[in-house]
Amino acid sequence: MFARIVKWDYLALVARNANANRWQKISSALIFCVIALGSFGASGVESKVDSKVDSRGKIPLNELGQEVIAPPAATSITAEDVAWDAGGVIKISWQPAAGITSATKWIVERSEVLVDGQGSGQGSGQGPWTLVAEVPIEEKYAVASKLSPEASYFFRVTAVSPNGSSAVTTTKSAVTGHWNFFIGAKLPLFCAILLVSACVINFILAARRGRPMKVRRIAALEAIKDAVGRATEMGRSILFVPGIQDMDNIQTVAGLTVLGNVSRTAAEYDAAIEVPTSRSLVMEAAREAVQASYLAAGRADAYNADAIRYITDEQFGFVAYVSGRMVREKPAACFYMGCFFAESLILAETGNSIGAIQIAGTAESSQLPFFVAACDYTLIGEEFMAASAYLSGEPDQIGSLKGQDLAKAIAAIVIVIGVVLATMAVIAPSGPIPAALAWLKGVLGS
Amino acid sequence: MKRLVPMWIAIIAGFVMLLSAFFPITESLGETVGDVFNVVAAIAFILGAGSLAKVNLAKISRRDQGWGYAAITLICFAITLVVGLGKIGVPPNTQFPLLAWSGEKNADGSIFGWIYEFALVPITSTMFALLAFYVASAAFRAFRAKNLEAILLLSTAFIILLGRTFAGVVLTGWLPDWASGLRLENLSVYIMQVFNTAGNRAIIIGIALGVTATSLRILLGVDRSWMGSGD
Which chain A residues contact residue B204 at CB under 8 A? Predict the structure, then answer.
């Protein structure tokens, strides 16, 4: 500590100065000796001091040998389980000390207490720590997420400045994130699903009671018979690609529902259909769908299981096979119904180059422009999802489409309300309107 | 019965997955359903490999046109399968140096890793690179000014293309500050943030509602066409 107070450069200057008197030179030499003797025990003294300050940011002196001032530690820290969550979120709050402005950020860390009580925290909060978050110095809280539910944790916070780190402030006891019955943050989403479901079920029941339902004409679905008929007339095959994702993707399921209809038409017209798949499970499901369609059309003998084949899971390997097949076999009609990514344009452009009539459908909004540019007909988003109901013509399913339309109308009303509120909030920046807008944003944002 | 059992499995699994998204107590059930799906998909892979072998062997035996490619496919499939399952050339894991099979199948030095790195990746990259040419040909066709809508599309695309390159900055950089909104780079941002975002969100809202309605039809057993006919 003495070395920090007495400046080395001042002492050296005095010792070298020819104008200094004898007493000044003698006193300088004595001070040098004291410092030199003191330096033997300096490391022990400094480590003791530093252990009180910080175990990581040991920056007691800067490059000029000047003493640096670490920021003050937080005066208190609390952690609490977040209510209505899945048990994996804990909120940590702290109170900064005065003079904290010299610091730039807070480092928040956690230490899990294991079940046997001998965990990394060891009951004192010391031990190996894991970073939770680095937050700006203005913040007074952080949220630790993705924690193990029902596990206990210690938390600590450290203020960090360019001059070093403050002392750590640790929670006095471990905090446990508890399971909750319902995830509260998802309540608006849950209500929205219930509302849409209520609309759909209501119209399904109305359709069963005999209420007439009218659905607008969808050109792409009307063109299916034309495309299959064209393939039959030309004596060429039909290619159906149900996307590149597995059966756990709703778009693949929607694609297979269209496949059922296309294959039934193909069976009735006696046209050959080929279905390359990039997932084994999709191959099996497609075989079931096509076989059932051939049976329904009374053409069970014409069903060929090998026409529905697995190619590869590899995205561009699959594209290479399908593109090559298209160029060699020149199918008269190509259907792309399912989940597609970068391969959408390669397939559609290849189909375009061979002069096939092409009908595509996907819910991947980023791929829709490619299909629109290269295909004759494209089912855009919800049209694709409605294809099965539209093609079946069953009152139940048509009713579900009307319910979907009602939900869409409700969404449109909410959007209009949001636009009006946002506009009014600009005109009147204070009062109940901005509060209502913030509430609406919060509900929709969650 | 053949339709009824899969339908009920789908209905139960679907509801479990739905509930697990909102009720933490059912979260583990949802994970179990996901695990079951992975197991079934893994078993189905055997069927897929069988289909691949059957189709290509039939092509070779019939001496169909291009049967040589079928032979190459099967040979490559067999080689990759053997070196992958047998972990040929895989160095043991450093934690278990005495266990020859403890390493990762695609670790450095393994034949499987070599095939992936120096055969599969270049080939798939080549296929991906074709996309650039297809984008050009599709854009050429899409942007032909056939009618008013096509002219609007072409004009918008022109602004976006110029606005995202230095050409846009050079062409309209001279505009004064009060007219900076008309600079191509700013127009480009405006079109993407306002018109494009609005249109995209409309499509996404429609998709979300469509997904909900489709899922509900399947969960309620109203739509059974994914298993074949609805009969």
Answer: 365, 381
C-alpha–C-alpha distance, residues A306 and B144, integer Å: 42
Is B135–A149 a contact, with Cβ atoms under 8 angstroms apart?
Answer: no
What class is the A76-176 domain? mainly beta
Alpha-carbon dihedral sign for residues A338, A344, A347, A351: positive
Judged by a CB distance cut-off of 8 A, whether residue A319 touches chain B is yes
Q: How many Å apart are CA A345 and CA A342, to the nearest integer?
A: 7
Cβ of residue A380 closer than 8 Å to a chain B Cβ:
yes
Dihedral over Cα of A148, B29, A280, A333: its sign: negative
Residues of A in Cβ contact (< 8 Å) with B215: 250
Among residues A393, A351, A443, the alpha carbon closest in space to that of A217 is found at: A393
User: Is the CB of A213 inside 8 Å of chain B's CB atoms?
Assistant: no
Smallest CA–CA separation between B96 and chain A, in Å? Answer: 26
CATH 3.40.50 residue window(s) in chain A: 219-393
pTM: 0.79
ipTM of the complex: 0.90
> Looking at chain A, which residues constitute the CATH 2.60.40.10 domain(s)?
76-176
Calculate mean pLDDT across residues A371-398: 92
What topology does CATH give the domain A219-393? Answer: Rossmann fold (3.40.50)
